[in-house]
Amino acid sequence: MESTLSLQSNLYPKITPAGAYYAVSGDTPSASRTLLYGLLRANPSETISSEKLLAWADTSDIDSALNLLYRLQRLEFLYGDENVGSEDTNLTDEELPELLAKLSNSGKALLADENGLYFANAGFHHEAAEEVGILAGEIAAVVDKHQLLIKNNLHIHHSAWGICDPSGQSELTFFPLYIGMSKLILVIGGLPDLNKEEFVTLVKVLHNRYGRH
């Protein structure tokens, strides 16, 4: 991530794990999310250009688009790379578990919709996965019900909920993911490890499914 993203024809814009998490961790519209969504939709073989930047940022003002681009760079939400991306974003539900397992130190993770139905599971026994999926749906409802208290009164601007041990180490964490018109819940058993390329790939896979509607 040492290369600097600029309007050079030989650089491919790429999203970091932090950028991917910011893009899908909330559903409040922002210019930053618009640009990140644009990059999630972009073909990995596309290099940066003024025209593409304007399209990704959904604006006609090149100065504001450039300022936004450089601000997201400083936040380490994206970067420029001389190598084209090669990740597969068309994974099936059967192929997702291998990806999910890498996001936890225990190899346990699953994805559920907001109704509590899980559709991809790594490491949880089937019966436990069903119950964890239901719990995820209930926690998503609690998050929605109390979001004004959490954000406005307590000034907590994170949406993940967790079950922790006495030292504060998470044993089960629920990450709401807002993608397109869909709300999904990523459940991690053990310590989450989202700061890796596998998480970016997961977000792209889910965005490819749900973010284009």
Question: How would you describe what is shown here?
Answer:
With 213 residues, this protein is of the alpha+beta class. The protein has eight helices and seven strands. The strands form two sheets. The protein has a five-stranded antiparallel β-sheet, sandwiched between helices. A two-stranded antiparallel sheet has the order 1-2. Strand 5 and strand 6 form a beta hairpin. It is globular and about 50 Å long. The model is unreliable at 1-5 (pLDDT under 50).
Q: What's the alpha carbon Rg, rounded to whole Å? A: 18 Å
Shape by Cα distribution: globular
The total beta strand count reads: 7
Instruction: Please give the largest β-sheet.
Output: 5 strands, antiparallel
- Give the helices and strands as they follow along the chain: EHHHHEHEEHHEEEH
Kindly state the percentage of residues in helix: 40-55%
Mean pLDDT: 91
Adjacency order of strands in the biggest sheet: 4-3-7-6-5
What multimeric state do the chains show? single chain
Q: Ranges with pLDDT <50 over ≥5 residues?
A: 1-5
Task: Characterize this entry briefly.
The chain has 213 residues and is of the alpha+beta class. It is built from 8 helices and 7 strands; from the N terminus they run E-H-H-H-H-E-H-E-E-H-H-E-E-E-H. The strands form 2 sheets. The protein has a 5-stranded antiparallel sheet with strand order 4-3-7-6-5, with helices on both faces. The protein has a two-stranded antiparallel ribbon with strand order 1-2.
